[in-house]
Specification:
Pfam families: 3HCDH_N, ECH_1. The chain has 663 residues and is of the alpha/beta class.
Length: 663
């Protein structure tokens, strides 16, 4: 086994190089090795300065998520950072590539920091529902102030070290790729100038404007108050404490806050969502040795909104798009839609005018047969284009709803806004088909999931189960408005009845229901209410165009069933979640999906299921499978074929397991 920390001494400088490929994740063995290497360097009288660098593509670019589920092995990150800062010999962090997760904590604990000009730093911990746990909330604001520190810590993104908000973290920049030489050169300069250890805990540059610091805290607190997530506010409170408390007390607050959040449901859910999205992508990748093609020119055949959205998504990813149909008027309307999107994006400052112009410059439109020429891959966005000839060997993939024998792609609508694409694997799919699908999805910067299906999608089935259970609850006497309100309050803007109004009730009117149950969309359509576009559906239209509850609709509904006492919000939500989890188990039993995490990824990326809830399967685990099963057991409704708990679910309960055990 190779050394996790490679140590060498040159001209009195001990260079400690992290070597834990591929990302130098700060695992317990690496922390132990670095702590030991530091101790050895401190004990070596020939060493006058210490430099810490990372081998490979970055200083430290990955987290060790497994430790978040249990107690940390010693030394933990906070202890290691304290050992670095308390060193009686100057410690220099030599940064390159990405400096993320605990890597930023270590860098901040060093006495000096130098960085390759292309270095990016960040603190993604907020995306896992936790605060940093190596002192970043205390050291970073001491260097760059509250506003910049919060931009980094709460934003969760990476930032170039030579630009705001990260500007001021490092002491010097270099362009050479020889990190070791740069480390030695900087350390020699320190010695020549007589500069010794300089603890970040003693830095005050970020506190110079004390009143301004507190103004930032109060402004950001008001901005974060409406968020359902706990971690952003907790980070803000730690950053506030950096100014108000001694360093040791601030570190203690950070440690306790981290521990409280780590054990909470939000962090557990966010950690599982984080893992799910990555594993779902790995599971979608074809298991073949053949090289993955890189597509640069996408042909889109067929008109309509789907085609427009696909074009925007591809243009955003840097692809050239050749869009063709047999009807020029369709293209005119489509271009107006695309142009309008870019104009609005510029107005909202989501994209620069130069970038918008460059992306639109990659769009060609015309006759389908002409546009199909010169394409690497072709997406069929509508029926009626299968006879259009294309380049020999170019993959052709259907993106519109249809029966699937080989492969198809289902982009979560709207395709230019949502990140999910389902790769539908039909019974006749070949490795070449799957490679083409995966390569295109990857090229378009989307999250893929692979589904064994002849036409149905995971998102489609999960949302159908939500709507079916919502109708059952109305059958049982609940108000559609109370059902929508309960889901909204829980954090998911997927209110089923408001959604139907927005999309038109006729789209939902043919969905199957039990013989004694009712499709309430069909019922309202039959009574002349078709949705928002036709003057109202389940809701009326308020003076400002908003949806408002309508007593006339409740009277219509109550004419055919008996209203009952309102169920508590948590009971409504849990009953709907139980139905969705049951449908997911049905898909698992039928081998449509291989892991529960695929369902979670589909719903988070494709239906904006609250990420901090982890997805419907994670939410079910955290609420409790037995509790949710009881929600279904007590339903007095004839649609038992739909909601009766599946055998696989009951077996999990019997054996003390949860859905996550199937991942």
């Amino acid at each position: 086994m190779s050394e996790l920390v490679v140590s060498s001494v040159t001209n009195g400088v001990a260079v400690l190089a992290l070597h834990n490929p591929p990302f130098n994740a700060l695992t317990a063995p690496l922390r132990t090795a670095l702590s030991k290497a530091l101790s050895n360097a401190l004990a070596d009288n020939a060493v006058t300065q210490i430099a810490i660098m990372g081998q490979g593509n970055g200083f430290c670019t990955a987290a060790n998520l497994h430790e978040l589920d249990d107690a940390f092995d010693q030394p933990d990150l906070s202890e290691l950072a304290r050992q670095i800062e308390d060193s009686p010999k100057p410690v220099v962090a030599v940064l390159h590539g990405a400096v993320l997760w605990g890597g930023l904590d270590l860098a901040l604990a060093a006495h000096y920091r130098i960085a390759h000009r292309g270095t990016r730093v960040g603190s993604p911990e907020v995306r896992l529902g936790i605060v940093p746990f190596g002192g970043a909330t205390q050291r970073l604001p001491r260097l760059i102030g509250a506003a910049a520190a919060l931009d980094i810590l709460v934003g969760g993104q990476s930032h170039a070290v030579d630009r705001m908000p990260a500007q001021g973290i490092v002491d010097a920049l270099f362009t050479s790729d020889d990190l070791r030489a740069e480390a030695i050169k900087f350390c020699e300069t320190l010695q020549k100038d007589g500069r010794g250890p300089r603890k970040t805990s003693g830095a005050t540059r970020g506190f110079i404007d004390a009143a301004g610091y507190q103004d930032v805290i109060q402004t950001r607190r008001a901005r974060l108050a409406a968020l359902p997530e706990s971690a952003p506010v907790a980070i803000l409170e730690c950053v506030e404490a950096a100014q108000l408390l001694p360093m040791y007390a601030g570190l203690a607050l950070e440690a306790q806050t981290f521990e409280d959040l780590r054990q909470g449901d939000q962090s557990k859910a966010l950690r599982r969502a984080f893992v799910a999205e990555r594993k779902a992508g790995q599971l979608a990748r074809p298991q073949t040795d053949q090289p993955m093609p890189r597509y640069n020119v996408l042909g889109i055949l067929g008109g309509g909104s789907l085609a427009s959205h696909l074009a925007i998504a591809a243009l955003h990813s840097g692809m050239k798009v050749r869009w063709g149909t047999k009807n020029p008027e369709v293209l005119k309307r489509g271009f107006a839609q695309i142009d309008g999107f870019y104009r609005q994006s510029i107005k909202l400052k989501r994209i620069s005018e130069d970038r918008a112009k460059a992306e639109l410059g990659n769009l060609a439109m015309g006759d389908a047969e002409k546009m199909a020429k010169g394409c690497d891959v072709i997406l069929h966005a509508a029926r009626g284009q299968s006879g259009v000839p294309g380049p020999e060997g170019a993959a052709r993939i259907k993106a519109f709803p249809d029966q699937v024998s080989s492969v198809a792609l289902r982009f979560a609508p709207p395709a230019h806004m949502h990140g999910l694409v389902e790769i539908l694997q039909g019974p006749e799919a070949t490795d070449d088909d799957l490679v083409a699908c995966y390569a295109l999805v990857h090229r378009m910067n989307k999250t893929p999931i692979r589904v064994k299906s002849q036409g149905g999608s995971v998102v489609g089935r999960m949302m159908a189960s939500l709507h079916r259970m919502a109708d059952i609850l109305v059958d049982l006497g609940q108000s559609p408005y109370d059902i929508d309100t309960a889901l909204n309050a829980w954090g998911w803007r997927a209110a089923p009845f408001a959604t139907r109004d927005g999309r038109g009730l006729e789209e939902f009117a043919t969905a199957p229901r039990a013989e004694a149950g009712r499709n309430w969309s069909a019922y309202l359509v039959a009574n002349g209410r078709k949705g928002r576009g036709d003057g109202g559906g389940f809701y009326g239209i308020g003076d400002n165009g908003s949806l408002v509850p309508d007593k006339a609709v409740l009277d219509l509904i109550n004419a055919t069933r008996v209203p009952k006492k309102k169920m508590p919000d948590d009971e409504i939500v849990e009953t709907i979640l139980a139905a969705m989890a049951n449908e997911a188990m049905r898909m698992l039993e039928n081998k449509m999906v291989s892991h529960p995490l695929i369902v979670d990824t589909a719903m988070i990326k494709g239906q904006s299921f609250p990420r901090w809830r982890g997805g419907p399967m994670v939410a079910a685990d955290l609420i409790g499978l037995f509790r949710l099963k009881r929600r279904l057991d007590v339903l007095d409704h004839p649609d038992t074929a739909f909601f009766e708990p599946r055998n696989g679910w009951q077996n999990l309960i019997k054996n003390g397991r949860i859905f996550n055990d199937l991942n």
